[in-house]
Amino acid sequence: MTPRALSLALAVALGTTAFNAAAADFKLTSPTIKPGSMLTEAQVFNGFGCTGKNVSPTLKWSGAPAGTKSFALTVYDPDAPTGSGWWHWVVYNIPAAATELPEGAGTADGKGLPAGSAQGKTDFGAPGFGGACPPPGKPHRYIFTVYALKADKLDIPAEGTAALVGFMINANKLGAASFTAKYGRSK
After folding, report:
1. Which of 183, 185, 177, 186 lies closest to 36 in space, CA to CA?
2. Please, which pLDDT band fits residue 24 given cuts at 50, 70 and 90?
3. Cα separation, 108 vs 129, whole angstroms
4. What is the pLDDT of residues 94-103, one digit of tens each?
């Protein structure tokens, strides 16, 4: 290996190690939902045959990567029988100074969110938190993810889909932290 190739390989390895170390410091937690646990009736949708309270949980994050200018948060069910999963909550333009979303912040009007935050439409067809409501059978996974973004604001139209928000998040992502919970019902 030439000295130049060796220097390039070393630079890539050090950069990857630094990125992985920064990513390891970025954490998402919830005082009410533990990773791998079952969601409670508080986080279950009220409709589509489910009778939950449809309340978004408290979510807290720490260790965001340097250069973070805003955050976005998603809740996604990859097991929904749609061929593309199901978006339960999409929040973006969360200010960089924010470190949590309080319980109940996911109302349709978004009044519990930090100033400047916006919610995209979920697969229920409206903005706001839409709780778990899988069809009877095997429990589904619900992936809660917070993204650190390099943009102050994502310019997304009010009628933008969750897929559009996801595209913009991925185009501006500095890092992500997530945990997964489950929920199932017998009938």
Report:
1. 183
2. low
3. 7
4. 999 999 999 9
Type and span of the H or E element at 168: helix 162-172
Spatial distance between the Cα atoms of 41 and 4, rounded to a whole number of angstroms: 59
Q: Are 44 and 54 in contact (CB under 8 A)?
A: yes
Name the burial class of residue 99, with classes exposed (0-12), middle (13-18) and buried (19+) by CB atoms within 10 angstroms of its CB.
middle
Cβ–Cβ < 8 Å for 162, 123: yes
Angstrom distance (rounded) from CA 116 to CA 166: 18
**Percentages helix, strand, coil for the chain, rounded to the nearest 5?**
20, 30, 50
The half-sphere exposure of 62 on its side-chain side, counting CA atoms within 13 A, is 3
The C-alpha angle 53, 54, 55, rounded to 5 degrees, equals 95
Domains and CATH numbers, the chain: 27-183 (3.90.280.10)
